[in-house]
Every structure is written in C-alpha cells, then in structure tokens.
Amino acid sequence: MGLSKMKRRKRIPLSLFIATVCWVAQTGHGGFVVPTARGSGMRPARVAGSRLQLAGVSVEKMEKHPRLPVWPAWFGIVYILLDLLLGKPGVGAWLEDRFGGRVCPMIFRDTSVSDPFLLVAHHRHSFNAFDPFRYLFRFLLPEGFPAHPHRGFETVTYVLRGGLVHRDSLGVKKSYGAPKDSSGSGDDAAVQWMTAGSGMLHEEMWRTGDAWESSDQELFQIWVNLPKADKYTSPRMQMLGRDGNSADVSAPKLGVLTEVHERGPVPSAEPKPGVSVRIIAGEADGVRSPIETFSDLAILHVTLQPGAVWTWPKPAGWSCLLYARKGEATLGDETTLQVHHTATLARADSEEELKLAASSEEVEILILAGAPLREPVAMGSNIIMNSDAELALANRDLSRGYFGPIWDHTDDDATWLATVTSHWGRMADALKR
C-alpha cells in the first residue's frame, strides 16, 4: 500500500462535477452575499415566520452559501429545482431538514473576519436501503470520507443525527454519534475534537448500519486554526457524548503518538424557560465545556422557543459568526437572517451583549466566537500552515510517510491496523524532529 492507492482512486471527480453544476444553478438563487445596512444602506426584504432580534452588536455581512446535493444527490437536486420553480427557498430547507440530501460548505477565504475559524460544513444526509440510486452512487463516491491528511489545525465534528466511524494512521478506531432515533434536539449530540497538529491521516465513514437499514445523518464540521506555536503539537482526540454515543472499537496503546480523552456528555444550560444552550467549547450561562483549546473561543448551539430571549456577553475583540440551522430571523432592527444564512458580526473594542429573541417559531443558531490569532494563513486543501514554504514541507512529509500510510476505506480492521502500525516508527521519529 502507500500513496499510489490514493492516486488510483478516481471516484471523487464526479462529485466535483455535480457540485459545480449545482453551484451554478444556485448562484442566481441562493449563493450570494447580502450587503447590510451598516455596509451599504441596502437590506434584504423581510420574510414571514420566526424572527431573531440581535441588539448591541453590528452585523458586518450576511451570506448564504450554496448547498450541494449529495447523499442522496437526487434529493438535493429536487430541492434546488423546487426552490427555483416556486420562488420559495424555505421549501427546500424544510425538505432538507426532513429528508436530507445536501451539504453546505462554508469556506472562509477572508480569515480576517472569521479568525480563528476556517471552515464550517453543514451536512444533512439520509441513506435508504430501498433507494434505487444509492448503490450506483456508492460505487462512484464512497459513503463517507476515505483516508486523507491534516496538519496545522483542529477538526470539530458535531453530530446531531446519525454517526461516524473514525479510523486514523495512529491506530485509533472510534464509533461515535447520536442515537438512531435522534432528531438533533435534546441531549443526544456527540462531538469529536481532533487536533491534527504535526500531521496525521484519518477517515470518517458514515455509520449506516447493515445493508437493509436506513439512517439519517446530520452534523457540522468546523475547522479551527492552531496558533503558529502549536502547529506541530502532538495529535490528540477529545470526545463528548453520552454513554453509548461514543464507543471504542479499537484503541491500541500508542505511547507518545496520540491521546484520546473522553470528556463526558455535551454540556448544556437552560438559563430560563424556552432557552437551551449546548456548550461545545468555551462558556455560557455559567457552564463551561471540558474541551481544552489552544486559543480562547466558544462554540454554542442555541435553541429558542417562540417568545424566548437569551443574552451572551461577547468578549472584546472577538470574531463572531452566527449560522441559522432552523428558523427565519432578524438581526437588529434592519437586517433579516433567513434559515441557512450566516451573519458575521463586527469586532468591537469592548465587551458587547449578544441578545437573541425568537418570535413565532423555534429558532436554532450555531455561534462560533473566538479571539483572532492575527497570524498569516496558508491554506493548502487539508493542510493549514502560516506560509507556502511550510505547505511545501508538509507535502514532502506526507510523501515520505510521516503522516502515516494510505489505506482503503474497504480494508477490514486487521488490514488497516497492520498497515498503519508498519509506519509508527517513522511517525514517532517525525514527532521528535
């Protein structure tokens, strides 16, 4: 085995073709940047439904990123066509939440406003045993994310429905996620916080069960940049989830190569009736997440019932992004936030009060906030460093096997483990450099 196997795998370009076609279809309909009143005097038309009031902060910009059809792709294509024909984007959002079939990758190329966050991807998929196209599509695109490299940042996988099976070049296999009947609410969530650090390979394949079992999947993946001083830290993994949501399938003792920490269930707070907050990282309402981070940040999932109000003190100088998972919302007095839109808040020199209030329907908001690192960012696909020279070094290290060897997602556990253990000596030497 080795890198040659990666070069032989030619199934991914079809997904890129589908993504490109659907991006073109959506850019005239949903892939756009909305200028706010603060920036241009323009504002989008107001919409009916639940509204979110945000006071005490300034909205820098509002964006809606294209949602690409996948798993099952034909569901996502139908949603796009219905939105275009009916002129009501909310129809596709409702169908997606109910049946799956799309992913929304939000890549923050302008990291000056999102720092330290680099990417957020909202996945909503379903796998049905009786889907006539599923098995053809699975031949062209594996149901998950086969082995790929990371260095220089952290990946946060926040699972609301379904789950994943993780295997990596450090010899760790983990199955984690929410219970089978989870709707994404309550206390069923699970989190994998993976520090890639000096470099590793991992795969995340959807936990779909046996051939005749259907499954719903929903998760957010968030990329968090590491400070320059910590880019080459040793890889580690932190897990959040209730008993049974996160389980060791195989976790050999690896010495200095990696650490796996079980941090307990995802902490939550209910500061008042109608308000629920999951604290994935950071602190809110007197509850602090046990996740250890390399910089000051908070990742919060806020759920508001109709009429509920919630406030959170946004620290001075912090970046802050708000993504609407459910509900249509209003930011401040002038800017409308619809479902699946992202609002970027302006940084302030002093602490500000972030106030959220829902009206007629339930609202769910994912909040990403953190102290900016203010360091150069060199983004090379799955590797995030501070310079092009460091990216070039990372690619050389990858080719030399310092991240570990490539395995196939179809390999059984014995074959996978034998493959990765053969490179542990080389990986350990790389960590000592």
How does this structure look, described?
It holds the Pfam family Pirin_C. With 433 residues, the protein is of the alpha+beta class. It is 21% helix and 36% strand. The protein has helices at 3-8, 12-27, 37-40, 73-86, 89-99, 111-114, 134-140, 388-399, 413-421, 424-431, and strands at 32-34, 59-64, 68-69, 102-107, 117-127, 144-150, 153-161, 163-168, 173-177, 190-195, 200-206, 215-225, 236-241, 246-250, 260-262, 268-269, 275-281, 283-284, 287-288, 297-304, 309-314, 319-326, 329-331, 335-337, 342-345, 352-357, 363-370, 378-380, 383-385. The chain has an eight-stranded antiparallel sheet with strand order 1-2-25-22-27-20-17-16. The chain has an eight-stranded mixed sheet with strand order 3-4-5-12-7-10-13-15. Helix 4 packs antiparallel against helix 5 (89-99).
